[in-house]
Amino acid sequence: MPRTVIEPFRVKSVEPIRLTTPEERARRLEEAKLNPFRLRAEDVLLDFLTDSGTGAMSARQWGGIMAGDESYAGAASFFRFEAAVRDLTGYPFVIPTHQGRAAERILFSVATKRGDVVPSNTHFDTTRANLEYGGVEPLDLVIPEGLEPRARHPFKGNIDLARVERLLAEQGGRVPFGMITVTNNSGGGQPVSLENLRAYRDLLRRHGKPLVVDACRFAENAMFVKLREPGQAARTPKAIAREMFSLADGCTMSAKKDGLANIGGFIALRDERWVEAARNLLVLTEGFPTYGGLAGRDLEAIAIGLEEVLEEDYLRYRLRTAEYLGEKLLAGGVAIVEPTGGHAVYLDARAFLPHLRREEYPGWALCDALYLAGGIRGVEIGSVMFGKRLDDGTETYHHHDLVRLAFPRRVYTQSHFDYAAEAILELAARAREVRGVRLVRQSRYLRHFTAELAWA
Ligand code: F0G
C-alpha cells in the first residue's frame, strides 16, 4: 500500500499562476514599499499569505451557490446554515456575520466594557485589536512551551491554567469571559487538547465565567486531538469537534478558514444573555439577522463547507501538507516552529537571519527575501505585526519573529510544496545577503497591513 498521503480530490477547474523574473519582483516589491500586503496577487507565484478565504470550494459547494436563496428575510439558505452550525456546535443561537472580526467586534461590544481583561491562549491580531479598541486588555496565557519555537509538545496551543487561576483570583472582577483560539494561530497553528479545554472550562465555571472559543480552525484542532490525544484515536473528527464546542458557551468563527468558504463568519451562543444586544448591533452594521452581511449563496457554501471540512481523508491530507514541507525544511537545517501546525509552516526568522537585529525586523526581512527569491508570499508574525510605536516614540517588540507560510485549503499540489522547499533552502544557503528593513510609515491599529518600509 503506497504511503504517500495524496490530495483526496481531483481538479475540475484551474487558475493559471505565473513566475515573474527576479528583476520584476524587485521592482514590484519596491512599488509595494517592501510590504507584501501591498503586492498585486498576480505578481505572486505561491500565495501563502493566508489560509483565510483563499480555499477552493468543492463541486457540491458550487452547486449550493446556485441554490442560494437571496430573500432578504427568512431565506431557506439561512435555515440550512443555522442547522449546520447547530448540528456542529450544539449552540441554539446562530448569528451570521460577514467574517470573523465582525463576529468579534459585535460580541465584544455587547459582552465587555472598558477596563475588562480577556484571557486566551493567544489572541489573533484582529481579536486583540478589537478588544483594545474597546478599552479591554487582551491577555495571552499560552503554556511556556507555546512560546518556544523548538519545544516539542503535542498541544502547544494549551492555555496555562495556573496563570488563568491567578488572574481569576486576583482580578476576577475584570474578566467577563475566557477565550481560547483553536488552533492557536499566532502561536504556530498549534492545537489545544480536550483535556486542557475541559480544565479551562472547569476553572472558569468555578468563577462563574463563560468560555468563548475562537473556532476558526476547529476541524484541524479536532484532527490533532484524534492523532495525538490519548484515547481519541478511534473517534471521528466530528465527534471530537462537537465535544470541543460542548465544553464552551459560545464561539466566534471565521468561516474563511474551516468553513471552507471564501467569505463569512458567525457568532454562536448557548444561552440568550448576549443574543438580543448582538442582533441589534448586527442590524446596524452587518445586516438583518438571517443574512448578517452575507448573500444567501455564501450561507449555502458555509453550511456545506462545515460538513466537508470534517472528512477524515481531507484532514489527514491537510495536516500532512504542513508536516511534509516542515520535514523538508528541517532536513535542510532550517529552523521552524515544531511540531508543524495545522494550516501553516512558521519559519523562525531570528534563526534564519542571525545577522539581523530585532530592530531590523528579521521576520519582515525574510518575507521580502522569499518573495524576491521565489515569488512566494508569506506573512510576518513578529514585531511589525505585534510590536508598537508608543506615544513617546519608543518601540516595543514581539517575543519572536516568525514568517508564516499559510496554506490555502485544497489549492496547491505537492509539487508546489517541493518548489517552496527548494526556494527556501536555496535562500538559506545565502541568508547573509538578506537585508533588514525599517518602518517608514505606519498606522495606529494593525499597522502591518498598510505600513511602508525601506531597507535598513
Ligand atoms: N481569529 C483567528 C484565530 C484568525 O486566524 C482570524 C483571521 C480571525 C480570528 C479573524 O477572522 O479574517 O474572518 O475576520 N485570520 C486570518 C489569518 C486573517 O490570515 O490568519 P476574519
UniProtKB/TrEMBL annotation:
Question: What are the required cofactors?
Answer: pyridoxal 5'-phosphate
Which biological process, per GO, is one annotated for this protein?
Answer: aromatic amino acid metabolic process
At what positions is N6-(pyridoxal phosphate)lysine found? K257
Molecular-function annotations in GO:
carbon-carbon lyase activity
- Recorded superkingdom: Bacteria
Q: Does the keyword Cytoplasm apply?
A: no
Q: Where is the Aromatic amino acid beta-eliminating lyase/threonine aldolase domain?
A: 47-422
Enumerate the InterPro entries for this protein. ArAA_b-elim_lyase/Thr_aldolase, Beta-eliminating_lyase, PyrdxlP-dep_Trfase, PyrdxlP-dep_Trfase_major, PyrdxlP-dep_Trfase_small
Is Lyase among the key words of this record?
yes
Q: Which Pfam families match?
A: Beta_elim_lyase
Q: Which UniProt keywords apply?
A: Lyase, Pyridoxal phosphate
Family in the record: Belongs to the beta-eliminating lyase family.
Cross-referenced PANTHER family: BETA-ELIMINATING LYASE-LIKE PROTEIN-RELATED, TRYPTOPHANASE
Its name, as the record gives it, is Tryptophanase
Species this protein is from? Anaeromyxobacter diazotrophicus
Q: Which gene encodes it?
A: tnaA
